[in-house]
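Q: I'm building a small set of examples for a reading group on sequence design. Run inverse folding on the following structure and report the sequence directly after it, with nothing in between.
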């Protein structure tokens, strides 16, 4: 597979245990973070991702949920997926414009 990632990547020898969770909290999957960059990560997902809303979801990096990244699906290859990290405020900017337009 051709390298498409813009940032420098850190690869984990054994992977890092993490969890994926729907934005609305209706689903959760265990996963292993294989590598990470400033802009995204490669995950190996336990169980099927079929039927999950992966347009936007959380990648939980701690058991308490205090360390997380908001993600969107980039690619799927079997049980591995690529995700792009969404920057803080991307959705808020759109909401702010909508609110300003309504008033």
């Amino acid at each position: 597979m051709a390298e498409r990632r813009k940032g420098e990547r850190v690869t984990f020898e054994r992977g890092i245990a993490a969890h994926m969770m729907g934005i609305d909290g209706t689903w959760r999957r265990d996963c292993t973070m294989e590598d990470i960059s400033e802009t995204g990560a490669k995950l190996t997902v336990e169980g099927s991702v079929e039927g999950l809303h992966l347009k936007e979801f959380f990648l939980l990096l701690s058991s308490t949920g205090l360390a997380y990244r908001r993600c969107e699906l980039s690619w799927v290859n079997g049980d591995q997926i690529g995700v792009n990290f969404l920057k803080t405020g991307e959705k808020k900017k759109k909401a702010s414009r909508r609110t300003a337009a309504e008033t």
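Residues 10-102 form a domain with the Thrombin, subunit H fold (CATH 2.40.10.220).
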